[in-house]
Every structure is written in C-alpha cells, then in structure tokens.
Specification:
TIM Barrel; 33% helix; 7 helices; 209 residues
Length: 209
C-alpha cells in the first residue's frame, strides 16, 4: 500500500513523513487552500527530503504560466489536478499527472476517468460543493470504482483509526491523507503520521493475505 502525505507546509513535517514510511508528499500550489505553499518555500521543503521520495504538486485551475513557474524552481515528480483542467492541459508539462475525481454518480466518475486516459492515477475524494479536497470528510467507500480503471488513490477524511477499514472496503492502490494527520491545517502531528502509515501498511498486508 502506497501512502501519500499531502498538504505539507514545513520541512520538518516532510522529513517526518518520509522517515515514517511515506512513499510521497504533496505540496499544494492553490491559494484557496489553508495548506498553500509558495514555490520558493516548496523548493526549500523539497531540498530536505530524499531524492527518491515522490513529490507531488497539487493545482486547481491554475494557468499554464504558473504551473511552469513552479516547475522551474521545484523538482516535482508528478502533478495533481483538482479542477476542471482539460486532458491536454494536464499532459502538457512533461510530468506524469494524477486526476482528482469527486465521488458522485458512477456515470459522472466514469466520464472524468474516460476523459483522462493518460492520467497516471485517479484520486477519489469526497465531493463537497465549493471545495477541492482537504475537507476531512469521508464518503461511502463502497462507491470506489474497482480495479478496471487503473491506479486508484483513496482520499477524504482518512485517519489512523479508519484507514484499515477503508482499505478493506475500497481496496485502493494508494491512500492520501492531509487533515487526518494534523494538529492544525498545514501542521502535521508526527505521532499521527507514524500511526497512519503503520495502519495503512498493515491493513494492506491483511487484505493481500
């Protein structure tokens, strides 16, 4: 089970996440988020983590110039899009990308997935009007599309107490957490980080067996 810790705003949290076993960290380049980081700050955070850690940059309806500016100073491994970006836009930056899919009707989710055949993964998150993730709200994990659509990431209201059950029901390829391992938005609790990652990895072993 791969684990991504999103909404990193401090270098010490990035280091703690990696040391706890996270496969990826997420940096949010969207000013509407409480966990927004400026590109220069993001570059400083990235410089503190292993070059073998995947670093994901999250954008919401950003213009191409801004995404390019971020990439010019931040060595991002991949991009994650949470808005109404077109497939052409998402594929235009020379990086693998993840497309966020708000959990709604099966038909609507299938439409989004079908529109982004080149996405490296699809992140399924709780649909909240006016929000683009990071709400701390769960959805019915039984609604998670099954394995015939590619790499699936489960997000939305996960924490150390519920992630094992979420994995058992949804059977995702990866999990993504932000608010569930925080003290306040943007400040991670290192004990929660460790407990979440341990619970996710152990749950995956049970599911596989």
């Amino acid at each position: 089970m791969q684990v991504k810790i999103c909404g990193i705003t401090r270098a010490e949290d990035a280091v703690a996440a990696v040391e706890a076993g996270a496969d990826a960290i997420g940096l949010i380049f969207y000013s509407g988020s409480k966990r927004h980081v400026a590109p220069q700050r993001a570059a400083e955070i990235i410089s503190n983590v292993s070059p073998y850690t995947s670093v994901v940059g999250l954008f919401v309806n950003a213009d191409a110039g801004y995404v390019s500016d971020v990439l010019s100073c931040c060595p991002l491994s991949q991009l994650q899009f949470h808005g109404d970006e077109t497939p052409e836009f998402c594929s235009s930056f020379g990086r693998p990308y993840v497309k966020s899919v708000p959990v709604s009707s099966p038909e609507r989710m299938s439409e989004i997935v079908a529109a982004h055949p080149n996405a490296r993964a699809y992140l399924f998150d709780t649909q909240v009007t006016g929000a683009h993730g990071g709400t701390g709200k769960t959805f019915d994990w039984r609604l998670m599309p099954q394995k015939n659509i590619g790499h699936r990431v489960l997000a939305g209201g996960l924490d150390a107490e519920n992630v094992a059950e979420a994995i058992r029901i949804a059977c995702p390829d990866a999990v993504d957490v932000s608010s569930g391992v925080e003290v306040v938005p943007g400040e991670k609790d290192h004990d929660k980080l460790y407990r979440f990652i341990r619970a996710a990895k152990r749950a995956d072993e049970v599911v596989v067996k």
